[in-house]
Design goal:
The complex is a heterodimer of chains A (200) and B (496). Chain A has 200 residues and is mainly α. Chain A is built from 7 helices and no strands. Chain B is globular, with a radius of gyration of 22 Å. Classes of the chains: A mainly alpha (200), B mainly alpha (496).
Chain lengths: 200, 496
């Protein structure tokens, strides 16, 4: 990664950190303000928690300001923790195994996910968000029974690049499972949507 | 007593009883694998089918179903990062990272074996405490329940992933979110903004599914990779490694079982609390706390080992005083009444054999679940090597149905979506998610029992011996977490 790109990313992180912290402050302050209308008993915990939250956020903002003024990186990410070096003795095997579990390339789920969300190009974000938006809009309008086969076939066909027979088999299996479990066995309703085209 | 125990065993070992248990296990397996539809829902829906059955058959059927639901909820947590039940949320923290490292078999082995050991501990607690439990349970009241919630809350400090300030802010946010809805004391709507859907509060299930499952699905859609990138153990030996882990970390396994059974015995404190108590405590006393959340077998044992233990423990107050310790307990209480049994002294004297049959059902059902699940682990762990885009449609439908099923409302689906978006923001900018969840789980308990304590006892509840004991535990945990945090950050600060 170039120096310019790294600087740009660091700046974005700084802005995001400020935005999140400010939003949290507004939320806590708003929660406190709303609680002023309630009786003392009803408002006791809301005031206590929103007040404590607001104070903590202010302390954090103080830290952000201090960092900004001293031109240090604003967010010090928790450093990747690697277990201490193996010590000679009976625990060697265990420590080596633990070290093998957390190698340099694979620092755990959270860091891996962070890497995906930080480094993915805009195109991937737009593509994933578009599919999700399409899924949930269709789900809201027409219900699960329609969105299940349509979305599944389209997604498997165009993103997973699977054959038509595979798509049909997949849809049949999934729909069969949902039908058997929800409708036949448990008699649970499935989301119908605003304009249900298919209903059972 | 020995006669009653043997008689109970004989009743459970009948062909009818084993068959009913297997039917319950099969239904529970299918239902439990779907996020959101937990054991209590399945049991409640199946309760009408038990009319006219013999008591032991009823319990074989219902307990078999419940046991397997707890375990299968953990399976989806490990494989897809989507908690099957709210009580499986902590399993995601280390179980799913292990699956991503290609160790799904090992993680599933840990889940199965630690659940079994935990269940055995819970069953033993059930059997041993039957004669003495009545006075013990009566010693616990709202003040003690409140202090138990506080014990859980102080683990926010140690579960913040090295970012104490952010963790505390998220904990406050979680607690505040738990207050949304009708105030249980005055009936005043709080933070509902005129939305009727918010009157019942924000459900735990959609938040858990969104916060943990949402980012996982979204990253699968973006990367188009499989969940696991490399396999370290592709065959069933990984499962047996997991079994070995459970016994290698025997202290953690035992502690998880004991916490699960202990919390289960106390009515009104749910499994959602037990898992974080166990996980937080295990992290606190571990020699490698920095590995927690990154695929630590020890963390997974602590999270998975208490779930089934809690089920055994929660039967104790239900049987002994007719006070259900959980939703499952409440449904079983109904089953008692359907079977013509009266919880309380009758169950401890004239129907002691039926009481012991519950103990045996708990053990046998757990063993059967392991035996049935064992051959399924290999194909299940292979799912983590399937291309992401193939899994996406199925996972999306699972999370939608899981959230919707909480109260059959589209609003829960939108809550899940919001939680998923928030989860992505948290991950991208290093805000810990677990403290938020802990606050959400415990906020309701804390408020309810704080006001009940004050209403019943004024401020004198602070002088109760168990309250003082738990307060000392709270101070000790806080001190220990702050000391560890200070020690960890000292070299970092000096380098800055």
């Amino acid at each position: 990664m170039s120096q310019a790109a790294a600087t740009q990313r660091s700046r974005t992180d700084v802005y995001a950190e400020w935005a999140i912290t400010s939003l949290l402050l507004i939320m806590f302050a708003g929660a406190f303000a709303l609680s002023l209308k309630w009786s003392a008993q009803t408002a006791f915990l809301p005031r206590l928690l929103s007040g404590a939250g607001a104070v903590l956020v202010l302390v954090r903002i103080g830290g952000l300001l201090r960092s900004a003024l001293s031109h240090r990186p604003v967010t010090r990410s928790a450093p990747a923790q690697v277990p201490a070096a193996p010590q000679a003795g009976a625990d060697d095997e265990k420590v080596i195994e633990l070290l093998a579990d957390v190698d340099e390339e694979d620092q755990g789920n959270e860091d891996e996910l962070k890497g995906v969300f930080s480094n993915s190009p805009l195109k991937l974000w737009v593509e994933a968000l578009s599919w999700l938006t399409a899924f949930f809009v269709c789900f809201y309008l027409f219900g699960l029974l329609l969105v299940l086969p349509v979305f599944t076939v389209l997604y498997l066909r165009f993103i997973a690049k699977k054959s038509w027979p595979f798509c049909l088999l997949y849809v049949t299996g999934t729909a069969g499972l949902i039908y058997f479990l929800f409708i036949r066995l448990l008699h649970l309703p499935v989301p119908q949507g605003v304009f249900p085209l298919i209903s059972l | 007593m020995l006669d009653a125990a043997l008689s109970g065993l004989m009743m459970v070992l009948s062909l009818d009883s084993i068959m009913m248990m297997l039917v319950g296990i099969m239904i529970g397996f299918a239902v439990g694998i779907l996020p959101g539809i937990g054991g209590p829902t399945a049991m409640a829906l199946m309760l009408p089918f038990t009319f006219g059955m013999d008591p032991v058959l009823i319990f074989s059927f219902l307990l078999g179903m419940k046991v397997v639901c707890s375990t299968t909820g953990d399976l989806t947590s490990v494989l897809f990062g989507i908690p099957g039940e709210a009580t499986s949320a902590a399993v995601v923290l280390d179980g799913h990272p292990m699956a991503r490292k290609g160790q799904a078999g090992r993680a599933l082995g840990i889940v199965l074996s630690s659940s079994l050991v935990g269940a055995l501990i819970g069953a033993c607690v059930l059997a041993l405490s039957i004669p003495i439990i009545r006075p013990v349970v009566m010693m616990f009241g709202p003040p003690e329940f409140f202090m138990l919630a506080m014990v859980g809350l102080v683990f926010i400090a140690s579960l913040s992933g090295g970012q104490m300030m952010k963790g505390l802010i998220m904990g406050c946010l979680g607690l505040l979110i738990s207050l949304v809805g009708i105030d249980p004391h005055a009936g005043v709507p709080r933070y509902t903004f005129g939305q009727l859907d918010l009157w019942e509060g924000i459900g735990l299930v959609p938040v858990v599914i969104g916060l943990f499952g949402g980012p996982e699905i979204f990253q699968l859609m973006m990367t188009k990779n499989s969940i696991a990138k490399k396999s370290t153990t592709q065959d069933l030996s990984g499962v047996f490694d997991g079994f070995r882990d459970t016994f290698r970390y025997w202290k953690t396994t035992f502690m998880a079982g004991a916490i699960g059974a202990g919390v289960g015995v106390v009515p009104g404190v749910g499994g959602s609390v037990a898992q974080f108590l166990s996980y937080g405590y295990a992290r606190q006393r571990s020699k490698n706390p920095e590995l927690f959340g990154k695929g630590s077998p020890e963390g997974l044992i602590a999270a998975a080992g208490n779930n089934n233990a809690k089920d055994g423990g929660s039967l104790v107050p239900t049987i002994a005083i007719g006070l259900p310790g959980s939703v499952t307990g409440a449904i079983l209480l109904n089953a008692f009444l359907i079977a013509g049994l009266n919880p309380g002294p009758e169950m401890l004297t004239t129907r002691l054999d039926v009481t012991f049959s519950l103990f045996w059902i708990d053990i046998i059902a757990n063993v059967l679940v392991v035996l049935i699940a064992l051959p399924l682990l290999k194909p299940l762990s292979k799912l983590t090597f399937t291309d992401g885009p193939i899994l996406v449609p199925f996972l999306l439908i699972l999370v939608v149905l899981g959230s919707y099923s909480e109260n059959n409302s589209l609003f829960s689906v939108w809550i899940m979506l919001a939680a998923a978006a928030f989860g992505i923001v948290c991950i991208r900018w290093n805000w810990p998610r677990v403290p938020l969840l802990l606050g959400l789980v415990l906020g309701d308990h804390a408020e309810r029992y704080l006001f009940l304590s004050h209403s019943l006892h004024g401020w004198s509840w602070l002088q109760r011996p168990i309250v003082i004991g738990l307060a000392i535990v709270v101070v000790f945990i806080l001190y220990s977490a702050l000391r560890k945090s200070g020690a960890k950050h000292a070299p970092v600060e000096s380098n800055a």
